[in-house]
Amino acid sequence: MGRNRYKIVDPASPHFMTCTVFEWLPVFTTARQILDYLEAQHVERLLARFRFAKRAHKTDREYQFWQEGCHAERVFNEAMMREKLNYIHYNPVKRGYVNVAEHWHYSSAANYAGLEGLIKLDVW
């Protein structure tokens, strides 16, 4: 991730972090694995987009996979935590991947709706 101006001021408190992949591709593996695969398969159209997104001053890489920057925000109370969870849970719906947040396979939305999710977790 790129440098940013946001700081975590209280490491003992939960924080909500947003990091966005370039052009909102759904990603469930590492960027390096995806780039290696695209190179092996000669998917030049996507590689060209990732090359184009890289800032000129970044000489340590050929591609920019993750969108620049992230934003740390301290979670002060349960209402704020619910707001952040809803934001995460409804992203696949907003993008049109599913009609209902609980249907997104990699989401904890099912757990929070009282259904069985992909992994067992303690809901907030």
Strand order of the largest sheet: 1-2
In whole angstroms, the N-to-C terminal distance is: 27 Å
Class per helix and strand makeup: mainly alpha
Separate helix tally: 4
* Order of helix and strand elements from N to C terminus: EHHEHH
Helix content: 25-40%
Biggest sheet character: 2 strands, antiparallel
Average of pLDDT:
79
Tell me what portion of residues adopts beta-strand conformation.
Answer: 5-15%
Total beta-strand segments: 2
Radius of gyration: 17 Å
Q: Rough shape? A: extended
In short:
This protein has 124 residues and is mostly helical. The protein is built from four helices and two strands.
What does this protein structure show overall?
The chain is mainly alpha-helical and 124 residues long. Helices cover 33% and strands 6% of the residues. The protein contains 4 helices and 2 strands, in the order βααβαα. It has a two-stranded antiparallel ribbon with strand order 1-2. The longest helix is centred in the C-terminal third of the chain and has 17 residues, at 78-94. It is extended and about 45 Å long. The two termini are 27 Å apart.
Per-chain topology:
Layout: E1 15-18, H1 31-40, H2 44-53, E2 71-74, H3 78-94, H4 109-112
